[in-house]
Amino acid sequence: MKWESWFSIDWQQVLGISLSAVGFYIGLMTFTRLMGLRSFSKLSSHDFAMTVAIGSILASTVLSDTPSLLQGLCAVGALFVIQGLVSMIRRKIKPLKALIDNQPIILMAHGEYFWDNLKEANLSTSDVQQVLRRNSIKSKSEVFVVIMETTGDMSVIKNNNVTPDWSLFNDVRDSELLIDATKTSVKKETLNNA
Questions:
Q1: pLDDT tens-digit profile of 176-187?
Q2: How far apart are CA 33 and CA 3, in angstroms?
Q3: How far from 130 is each of 34, 125, 154, CA to CA, in Å?
């Protein structure tokens, strides 16, 4: 094995990498300005896939002479067009939105785990507990709901005195169970106070 090849670089490679990085950066900023801020958001699984794909193309284009800078920019441009089309389809054709996007899912509500949903999401209680700790939750009774979003992130909403706006949960799978559980807990609280 030639160890020196692991640690060597000549001025032509430095120049090529530098020019490719600058060119790719300018191209990426141009595409982002044309397509909008959504380009690198993490709002859905296809947005996440777009970000990973661009990173992969960036790495291979900048560090090697194949693919060329123009080939890399062409591939990234195609990804931006595809993302723009998918985003437009998601906005305009609601039935296709369900085919394209994952649906947020309730993992815990009112301190109780939704076991079937945990199993479906391939999560354990310790995964949820880690997120609760990160959100400064000291007791499960503090939790109104934990939702796994379409990106895989978990949203933790704490209990408080604000009446929930149920329209915020319309797109969440099993949201009716959340509403039912809330009504049950309100009834119990009313009986306990009587």
A1: 877 776 666 655
A2: 43
A3: 39, 9, 10
CA 61 to chain centre: 25
Calpha distance 133→137 (Å, rounded): 5
Task: Please name the residue that has the structure tokens 């959100």.
Answer: 135
**Residue 116 in tokens:** 């079937």
| Element at 112 (helix H, strand E) | strand 112-113
**Residue tagged 């039912």 (tokens):** 180
Q: Cα(37)–Cα(138) distance, rounded to whole angstroms?
A: 36
pTM above 0.90, yes or no: no
Instruction: Give the whole-angstrom CA distance, residue 22 versus residue 87.
Output: 28
| CA torsion, ordered 92, 97, 101, 106, to nearest 10 deg | 110
Q: CA–CA distance from 111 to each of 20, 173, 179 (Å)?
A: 52, 18, 14
Strands 143-148 and 154-158: antiparallel
- Residue appearing with tokens 């670089």: 9
pLDDT of 13-35, one tens digit each? Answer: 889 999 999 999 999 999 989 88
Q: Are the beta carbons of 156 and 132 closer than 8 angstroms?
A: yes
